[in-house]
Amino acid sequence: MNSRDHRNWRVIRQLRQEADNRPLVALGLKDFETIDECVSRNRQMLARFQRTGMPPDLWQKFYGSPLERQENGFDGDWIASRGHRATLLPQAHRLMTAHCGPLHFVTVVHPNWELPVANLSKADIGAARQWLHRRFQRLDRSVLVVGGFEASLRVELNSGMYWAGHLHLVVAGAENEELRGALEIERRYITRKYARPVTVEPIGDLARRLGYSTKRLGRQNIAYIGKNGRQQRRELPLPTQRQVEFDLWLPTSPWETS
Q: In 3-state terms, what secondary structure has residue 88?
């Protein structure tokens, strides 16, 4: 490709991206990830695989060609994921806005969803989905839910590490107290010090909450003691080895919004 063709290709890609972003900009998501950012993230992912000495046939088993990735799923490929979310978010926003009842942003961190490092592939998302379904059946009204299952690496004060599974959800149609009661985690399951294993918050910016709930981005949360003497957590990128574990987990862990 000569320089002129390259410039034309970039212009065409820019025009396609602007057209793709118009519904998102209309929702107020002006900083939605760009195609170039997604290309960069995919390149970084493949570079990590190479640096860690992973055999090409192993990661190709998960990722294959771009066409195969889009046919097999969206998570694990930032370009395919972006395209999926760019279509999903305006639709979800429209449905949520039209649904009767209040809107809330919900986070659930269940101790049963914890896993040791190097064992993220054993995460049972089906069990988390069933748990959520049973809990919402406790409500005497129908609700609309959009969200997903995420995993973050937790580093405790004693340097112990583990994967913490959690749900981020946007829920329409139930009151705050109803959601807290339905999603309450029994104390017998709580073996660690959790600030709040279940949080229910006002929705705030609906579009941003939907974007956050559907974006599966690996992070580590490092515990430390703040100036007030209480334990707090600092969010940082994953270390390379754990990021590779997370990258390989994504395409094998589908979570359908409902």
A: helix
Q: What is the DSSP letter of 235?
A: E
What is the Cα gyration radius of the chain? 20
Cα distance between residue 258 and residue 103, in whole Å:
15
Residues facing 171 on adjacent strands: 104, 145
Q: Give the number of domains in the chain.
A: 1
* SS3 state at 199: strand
Residue 236 pairs in a beta bridge with 220
- Residue 165: domain span: 3-252
* Residue 257 placed within a domain: no
Strands 115-116, 144-155: parallel, antiparallel or unpaired by DSSP?
unpaired
**pTM of the predicted model, to two decimals?**
0.85
In whole angstroms, what is the distance from residue 120 CA to residue 123 CA?
Answer: 6
Angle at 129 between CA 125 and CA 132, to 5 degrees: 140
Q: Tell me whether residue 258 is in a domain.
A: no
Q: In this structure, are residues 202 and 104 in contact, taking their beta carbons and an 8 Å threshold?
A: yes
Per residue in 42-66, pLDDT (tens digit) is 889 989 988 988 877 776 666 665 5
